[in-house]
Amino acid sequence: ASWRAIGRFLEIADKHGIRPVFVLFDSCWNPRPAAGKQPAPRAHVHNSGWVQSPGAAILGDPAKHDGLKPYVIGVIGRFKNDSRILAWDLFNELDNDNGGRFTAHEAKDKQANALLLLRKAFAWAREADPSQPLSSGIWRGDFEHPNELRENPARKLGRDQLPRLRDPA
Questions:
Q1: Does the keyword Kinase belong to this entry (predicted)?
Q2: Phi and psi torsions of 58, nearest 5°
Q3: Do residues 107 and 56 lie in contact, with contact meaning Cβ atoms separated by under 8 Å?
Q4: Nearest residue to 9 via CA among 105, 60, 75
Q5: Reported pTM
Q6: ∠ CA 76-116-127 to the nearest 5 degrees?
Q7: In this predicted model, which residue has the larger pLDDT, 157 or 15?
């Protein structure tokens, strides 16, 4: 991570009264990230150049998940008391299947492995002991009737593993 770039981003956001939610992992779009020059964006296509993090090669191999621990602890640890950060979204839309666009390239057992990584990410993030709340944005569900959410990753985590929000008063 480029600490200076993140710090500069936080300065600009703060100047405009914005407190960002940083996302560490994301299950949306292309499951084959690669270093180097990226493909040009496609006109009129939302997030056409977005890639998943981690990509299918790491997400699909639980033996590689623990290699992500230094990243989680390092980033959160560095900014754990920074009041300019609203929260940490540990895994954005881990249940997003991308509408079948990348089925041939998705991680093996993507949903199960994403949930496994999410559990680890919560544990690692708690090790860093941030002052900000921890979260994980879900994709699927009848959000007008939250008690009826099916296949909700938060339910699979179990209530004992969900983040506890503190009353700021």
A1: no
A2: -90, -45
A3: yes
A4: 75
A5: 0.82
A6: 30
A7: 15
Scanning the structure block, which residue is given the tokens 């100047």?
15
Query: Locate tokens 């909700």: which residue?
Result: 152
Convert the pLDDT of each residue in 27-86 to its tens digit: 998 899 999 988 888 899 888 888 999 999 999 999 999 999 999 999 999 999 999 999
What pLDDT was estimated at residue 169? Answer: 42
Q: Which residues contact 115 (CB under 8 A, 6 or more apart)?
A: 94, 153, 156, 157
Cα 100 to Cα 88: distance, rounded to the nearest angstrom: 28
127-165 core/surface letters (b: 16 or more CB in 10 A; e: else)? ebebebebbbbbeebeeeeeeeeeeebbeebeeeeebee
